Fold these 3 entries.
Entry 1:
Amino acid sequence: MENKDEILLAIRAARKDLKDGRTFRAEEMLALLEGMANCLDKEHIIRSKCINCDNYAKSFFPLEGDFHVVDKHEYCHSKKISLQNLNWQKIGCCTEYSDRSQKEMETLADSIVKEDLEPAFAKRKLYDRAKFASYKVTFNIHKDAGKVCIEFGHKSGKEFIAADMKLCVLRRLDPGIEPEAAKKIAQVMEEEPVVFVEASEQSRRQLDIDYVLEYVAQKRKMNIVYL
């Protein structure tokens, strides 16, 4: 069923149930929903609300160790079924939504960059093999559902050029993480966020980064995983 059809049917059912008892405020709300029916999309609601929800169910693994078998949309925390099988109304009406943890991770990533990484790499250079030149290390924060990644790189004018190194703060296993990487992360994942590092050994040696990251993990009381 099309999203707009779901909405229109719900509005008609509400008008039928309310009958003569509806107030002008209720009528305004019904008219507003009816007018927005063509604009609302269930996938958009899932992306903007459910995926960042702190109450969102943990990744569902059908069998122990099957880290690659993960439902892309995972499961609703209250309905215990796939988000794909919920209609827009049940998702939209959920009152348990919160994105506090996601915002806390974003704040944590900002703090790591400003307080730890920028001072530690202030005098270090990152070599760009494509341009045969060394540049001052800069950082870019990329936000995604369930995690926040700090990319290492340099600036070329206003453009950020990412290197083959990034530091990610993760609070739950997500679809898209490679099975072997997911196994390593799962071994150390507890209540606190986990930091995982994606970088070649050559890049790590070039920047002498390991001791800085170990310091960050210890200071922030997070476990760290090198992938």
Entry 2:
Amino acid sequence: MSMEDRDPNALRRRSARILVEGILIALLIWAVHALFGLVHWQRLPGYLIIGYTISLAGRVADVLWKVTIEAMVKRPATLIGYLTRIPFWYLAGGVGYVLGMLVAKKAGLIGFYDIPVEPLFALGGKVGCLMQIALRIPVERLMARKIRYGG
């Protein structure tokens, strides 16, 4: 039984983290779209859908990495452990971005050309990797500080 299973607030914290990540990703995607003019018309709820799907896909990628790769890596918190996560983050970002874009388009919140899908997937993969790396850095620094100072 893991620590999260014993903590009754773990689900609430996890859900809040996914929501906050989704908002951050939505803001990043909105900025990229505005800068490069990648969509024809846009509404904020569409970006929230995209950010949320990328965030959820990132969590799924973490779980998938844990069940498939973690046992093969001697120390998962080392550089090699993080390097093995990058393909999972890229795929999750690509799938989450394309899925979010298609759902937002179907809901009438964003207009864009969905064929070919490869550029959308590639942009989503890059955003997914960048966000996962950016979100890991503060956590890793905090953990290293706690280990170093015994806190």
Entry 3:
Amino acid sequence: MLLTRQSASKCATDIDNARTALTNAQSALTADDDSYDQLRNVIDLTKATYTAGNDNGVYSSDNWNAFKSAYEAAYTAIMAVGSGYQPNGTVTPLAVELQQAYDALLEEAQNSRVDTTALVEAITKANGMEAYETYFAPDTYANLTDAVANAKKAVWGTEENYGVPSAALQKTDENTQIVADQTAAVLAAIPALRINHDLHITSGAHYVSWNSILASYEALDGSNM
């Protein structure tokens, strides 16, 4: 009887720990980014544009210089994380300023290029799943990363050109539909993510998987105590 009670207690603890881990993964599908995540996201979006430069004069000098300054300020802040995080929200103005400066470049380019706003938002949300990759079934996570990669190549030509306003498809009805289709594909892959029930999590001094916990529970539930 004592052994059975101990087993039941251990199983209950494992279930609680596993539930916490699964909740953390599932909450990533809807959670808002904190300020540093917001800053990283906008840097990821704009770094290819910064690297490409403006030697060809695609953007006005004023807009480019504002963007360049905002990017460098944001990059400096993110590189300073090694010295410690600032209070939550401190770097938000940097992210906002960089996003606004980038939007000004987009506005110039979108006179002749497709509107990629919705697709960028979808990719940003998909990128937010990366921190929880190990929680998801590998095949479903691979489907998500494939959808993102395909969207980048379809709209910007290469993954490396992602976010460069002047690299986006020319504005035509056909290309606008391509953007819409790629946006839908990325958005569909996010809720299609499935929790990896074979993932081993720490529960006390040992590792357990969700499937092993369920098996233990079923064995205990079916025993005569």
